Amino acid sequence: MFSNNYVINKSQKAFLRKLYLAHLLDEEQHNLLSLQKLTQMPRRTLQDAIAAFVDIGIEVDFVQQGQRHNDGYYRISTWGPISSAWVNSHFEQIKQHIETIAEFERVN
């Protein structure tokens, strides 16, 4: 999955993005704004990826912390069939692939 010569298709990119974001949400309390700052991903991309966690069995909740609709943070309630330990141990590789893909898309 992580060889240097491996071409990542759209589905694989979406899967890696979900793993990447799920790990970030599991490690710290994040909302869309903090995720945007951290990942440099567009808001809509983040919203779509978080909404699609269910496609791979990850369940996420939004914990409301104020009066405004978006005051709060996302929390992983279950990783489902995904091994969070595996994601944690491969996080730097996943992050590198996400960054490489983003750089490639900026150039092209």
TrEMBL record:
Pfam families in UniProt: HTH_43
Q: Which Gene3D superfamilies match?
A: Winged helix-like DNA-binding domain superfamily/Winged helix DNA-binding domain
Cite the InterPro entries for this sequence.
UCP037266, WH-like_DNA-bd_sf
Official protein name in the record = Winged helix-turn-helix domain-containing protein
